[in-house]
């Protein structure tokens, strides 16, 4: 009996006419190549493939509480019964009825593309999918951790120490920068863009790995931009110039937002741009030219070109990454080789026997900021 027939028999509901996204076939073998410790790869040598993602039964997932209900998505905190009969916390996402009816978002295509992603340290792990009552649900792991914004707020002591700038801070900043650039390069290579990328939309795992979420297909970038603009007063710190003026969003637009995030890392959370009304933005745009003093030894002037009004003149993510790598290699050995794991990292927990109330607080911090409209 095939999967659709089994679901029909168990749920006793009429299945939707849409096609279920297919799970990618597992390759015969796959492994990471040997990398240096400077590259900060936190995975084991054996690469986990997407074949471990499952087509779930509805009864495998228990919805605990609703986290967010926005214009595009509904999200719940839930628990998933694993194959070894244990339970773990997960985040369950579906498209809203409004977005489905108005065809604002290519949800089925998005889920299919996400399932095709190889497992990586840069994105949230996909646990599986399931269908019930005509709705397709995406089930992702939940990680107990801080957002990059929260982490920066609680770690400003590293920047403003009495002794001045320290190798610890420069090493920390460079590690975060390279994590984000590699992650964004990765998702773009699979056909995704990240409108609204910010330090609030980057999770920092227990080993200091940056994880990206809330990205979308290239075809849905404009809809995502319009959603973001409808829910908040946006500035050049939130969206690039072309998005604010014309609702456009391209690969070059991602570069603008990446530069804003990197600037906040380098300047201890300060934003590069002021607040302007939409009507004033084009004439008031002033690209910052003063490099943050505390990060003087890791200066990279190419960052300023990421805010060029002409989108085609902005550097690519790959180019930006390679120039930061050169800056990193030019640093003294005591800086370039120093590694740190902050005491403020919160270890990842995946068992349901922990306090649900604590889980709600962490999940709300991570996900309420992503509720659209």
UniProtKB/TrEMBL annotation:
InterPro entries in the cross-refs: Kinase-like_dom_sf, Non-receptor_tyrosine_kinases, Prot_kinase_dom, Ser-Thr/Tyr_kinase_cat_dom
PANTHER family (UniProt xref): TYROSINE-PROTEIN KINASE (PTHR24418)
Keyword set includes Nucleotide-binding: yes
Region of interest (Disordered), residue spans: 1-31
Domain of life according to the entry: Eukaryota
Any one Pfam family match given in the protein's UniProt record, by short name: PK_Tyr_Ser-Thr
UniProt-listed PROSITE patterns: PROTEIN_KINASE_DOM
Biased composition (Low complexity): 21-31
Lineage: Eukaryota, Metazoa, Echinodermata, Eleutherozoa, Echinozoa
GO molecular function, one term: ATP binding
Gene3D superfamilies in UniProt: Transferase(Phosphotransferase) domain 1 (1.10.510.10)
Organism per entry: Holothuria leucospilota
Keywords tagged on the record: ATP-binding, Nucleotide-binding, Receptor
Domain Protein kinase: 61-324
Compositionally biased intervals (Basic and acidic residues): 1-12
Name the UniProt record assigns to this protein: Ephrin type-A receptor 10
């Amino acid at each position: 009996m095939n999967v659709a027939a089994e679901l029909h028999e168990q749920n006793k509901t009429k299945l939707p006419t849409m096609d279920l996204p297919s799970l990618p076939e597992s390759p015969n073998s796959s492994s990471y190549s040997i990398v240096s410790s400077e590259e900060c790869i936190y995975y084991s040598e054996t690469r986990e493939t997407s074949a471990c993602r499952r087509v779930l039964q509805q009864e495998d997932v228990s919805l605990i509480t609703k986290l967010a209900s926005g214009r595009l998505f509904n999200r719940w905190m839930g628990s998933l019964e694993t194959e070894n009969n244990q339970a773990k916390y997960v985040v369950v996402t579906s498209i809203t009825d409004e977005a489905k009816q108005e065809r604002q978002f290519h949800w089925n295509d998005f889920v299919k593309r996400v399932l095709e992603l190889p497992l990586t340290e840069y994105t949230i792990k996909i646990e599986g999918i399931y269908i019930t009552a005509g709705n397709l649900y995406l089930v992702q792991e939940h990680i107990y951790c801080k957002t990059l914004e929260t982490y920066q707020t609680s770690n400003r002591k590293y920047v403003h120490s009495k002794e001045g700038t320290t190798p610890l801070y420069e090493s920390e900043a460079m590690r975060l920068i390279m994590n984000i650039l590699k992650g964004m390069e990765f998702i773009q290579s699979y056909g995704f863009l990240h409108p609204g990328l910010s330090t609030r939309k980057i999770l920092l795992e227990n080993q200091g790995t940056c994880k990206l979420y809330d990205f979308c297909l290239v075809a849905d970038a404009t809809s995502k931009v319009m959603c973001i603009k409808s829910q908040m007063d946006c500035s050049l710190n939130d969206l690039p110039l072309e998005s604010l003026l014309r609702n456009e969003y391209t690969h070059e637009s991602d570069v603008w937002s990446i530069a804003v995030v990197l600037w906040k890392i380098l300047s201890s959370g300060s934003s590069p741009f002021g607040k302007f009304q939409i009507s004033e933005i084009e004439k008031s745009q002033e690209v910052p030219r003063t490099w943050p003093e505390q990060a003087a030894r890791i200066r990279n002037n190419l960052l300023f070109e990421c805010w060029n009004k002409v989108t085609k003149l902005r550097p690519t993510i790959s180019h930006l990454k390679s120039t930061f790598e050169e800056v990193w290699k030019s640093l003294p050995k005591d800086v370039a080789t120093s590694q740190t794991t902050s005491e403020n990292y919160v270890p990842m927990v995946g068992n349901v026997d922990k306090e649900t109330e604590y889980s709600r607080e962490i999940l709300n911090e991570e996900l309420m900021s992503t509720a659209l409209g």
